[in-house]
Amino acid sequence: MSNVASRKSMLSVARRRLDETGRIFRDAGPRIRSIPSGGWIGAIREALGMSVQDFADRLGVTRATAAKLEANERRRTIQLDSLQRAADALGCDLIYALVPREPLQDMVTERRMAVLKSMRRRTQQNMRLEAQEVDDPQQEEHLLAQAELLVPDRLLWRKEK
């Protein structure tokens, strides 16, 4: 297997794995995306019956620092390492994820087709100017079949010039 084919295969496997994880998160919907009004730290701390001082003691910080940590989460300015320490102090796991709104493979296919169509429009314009335009009734099928070969992943997200 060539190096290019091997890389394509690895990307395909990675996309499939990420798509499966994304599907699980998307299916869970609003249940996992809604943040308690006081933030996760405050909600879990209070549900455990833990005072801010007890939380601070578990973190090894002052009460003011613990309160600031909760405030930072509410404002969405908390750092991930701080959120991880808070999760540990509360006996929780931190789950951090970017969940694609649609499957990654669909995004790549749509983008690949858009890039290919853009390339094709430029070529057609030149062919039209030279009176060499070709009329192919099966163009869309042909484009879909050729898109992966003609538009490599590394070119998908570049800005057009």
Description:
- This protein is mostly helical and 161 residues long.
- Helix content is 66%, strand content 0%.
- The protein is elongated.
- It starts with a helix and ends in an 11-residue tail after the last helix.
- The model has no long low-confidence stretch (mean pLDDT 85).
Question: How is this fold's topology laid out?
Answer:
Elements: H1 3-28, H2 30-33, H3 39-47, H4 52-59, H5 63-74, H6 80-89, H7 104-129, H8 139-150
State the major sheet: none
The total count of helices amounts to 8
Give the end-to-end Cα distance, rounded to a whole number of Å: 34 Å
β-strand percent reads under 5%
Question: What labels would you give this structure?
Answer:
single chain
Question: Concise description?
Answer:
The chain has 161 residues and is an all-alpha fold.
